[in-house]
Specification:
mainly alpha
Length: 166
């Protein structure tokens, strides 16, 4: 087993980012806009949940990293892992740029689809699939992306009454 410090570092970054997001949400006004909820409620809730769920992940990943024996001559990060990180960062930048012009549903569906397929390719699983499995994977990823985008859109617009760009 190869030592991979990427997972513990990612967990630590999640902890720091969620704590910073929670601190920033504390500065939002405590006015009621819909029902009994203030604009700060959801950012506080989401950042607190991310923080709480990242703690056990960090503990587990640090334990695994410590238990893994270092391999002689191994690089700190393998090429596949770097490609996956760069793919997600690049897609996130494109998603941010497309969010306003395209609206929530199309940009989120494209982002989710590209994440799934890109990570399949970067992980090497795509190369192990035959043609029919690839077609099924593309179809499944498309259905997943569309259902995810539409479901989240309606949860926010109808249940939470928070408008998202069309």
């Amino acid at each position: 087993m190869e030592r991979d410090i990427g997972k513990p570092i990612f967990d630590l970054l999640l902890l720091i980012a969620s704590a910073a997001a929670f601190a920033a949400a504390m500065a939002l006004p405590d006015i009621e806009i819909v029902g009994d909820l203030s604009p700060a409620f959801f950012p506080k809730l989401i950042s607190a949940m991310i923080f709480l769920f990242a703690i056990p992940c960090l503990v587990k990943d640090v334990r695994e990293w410590r238990a893994a024996a270092p391999t002689g001559g191994s690089r700190p990060a393998n090429r596949r892992g770097v490609m996956q990180w760069l793919w997600i960062v690049g897609l996130t930048v494109v998603y941010i740029l497309l969010f306003e012009p395209l609206g929530y549903i199309p940009s989120t569906a494209v982002f989710a689809f590209c994440c799934v397929i890109g990570l399949l390719i970067a992980s090497g699983v795509w190369g192990e699939l035959n043609a029919s499995q690839r077609v099924k994977s593309l179809g499944g990823a498309a259905i997943f992306a569309i259902v995810l985008a539409v479901a989240i859109y309606y949860v926010f617009t109808d249940l939470f009454e928070i408008p998202l760009p069309d």
